[in-house]
Design goal:
By secondary structure, the protein is α/β, with parallel strands linked by helices.
Amino acid sequence: MIEINGEQVERVSKYADLGLSAPVMRAIDKKGYVQATPVQAGAIPYFMEWKDVIAKAPTGTGKTFAFGIPMVEHADPASTDVQGLILAPTRELALQIQDELRDLCEFKEGVRTVCLYGGAPIEKQITALKKRPQIVVATPGRLMDHMKRRTVRLDKVETVVLDEADRMLDMGFIKDVTRILDQIKHRKNLGMFSATISREVMDISWVYQRDPVEITVRPVEDSKPDIQQYRIDLDSREKKLDTIVALLTHGGYERAIAFCNTKNMTDRLAGLLKMRGISCEAIHGDIQQKVREKTLEKFKAGQLRVLVATDVAARGLDIDDVDAVFNYDVPDEMENYTHRIGRTGRAKRHGVAYTFVANITEGIRMDSIVKNTKAEVQRLQYDKDGCLLPVEEK
């Protein structure tokens, strides 16, 4: 179900009905897509008309194509100016967006994209900018670096998109974002895409958008991910390792993500799993960007069975076939729980998520998450024979 400006709308569209150009349709056909997702069916027509859009949609609902398709359609291959700018909170998400845009541009000759992010040599990015791309995808900090060096010009930008706007502002980028928007005087439209509409997101909207079209995609039963959620109560933290190894072995999960709350715990768990003969790597903010990218490639290619990650990696991971998610640590925030388990059960596949609860504090946090998300979570516990059994709710 989708709401546009507060009214419920049944909007089911095929890409072929959206009036897209032959080159873009060819790119979509090549990917095998026919049906537009609700956020795409809602946003694309307004973006094509240069309207400001603020869209609230769950993770994994196809937001990149919702703004990427109109941006590629509007890009003029003959121009040497930057016409479209997409800001993303993390390097992983920025790279993922660029990959999807490249796919869309495949048959539209002359349209170039560039990705600007920290943790990579700035000289290579300056060389890429000299090829005069029409679309720039960037993290705010690195884009500010380029603006200070005058290696990128944004005075001809027509469309700006803030992807995962809530996350970007939560991460402290609000000053950079407003400075960047203040530099783009002649933009025609601004799109903001977010899983939640926070006060900070609304503040940006009030200042920088004009009569935005508000699109809300409700997680209806059909589009709700098929995720079986379990809570496993353990009597000590030490039992967590044996439990994850047992579940990986007996569950036959080929591709899983385990989430920890700290970088240190992420490294420790990856090391412990390797010692148990399970192929895995850690990914978090302190690991060099090149290494992170290589790890993600190995995981996508099936060369790693487990990816151990912090919440920085929960957003922007474009991996559609994760069999299981393990919350090795109960997340500190409810929103992180939703984003973590959203890595499984995507693309109409069945997914499973396990959360390990080993002390009173974790139990209180998990109770709060279940209450606030209204999630259906089955409780499991080991019996005296070491069998995992459902706990009868009192």
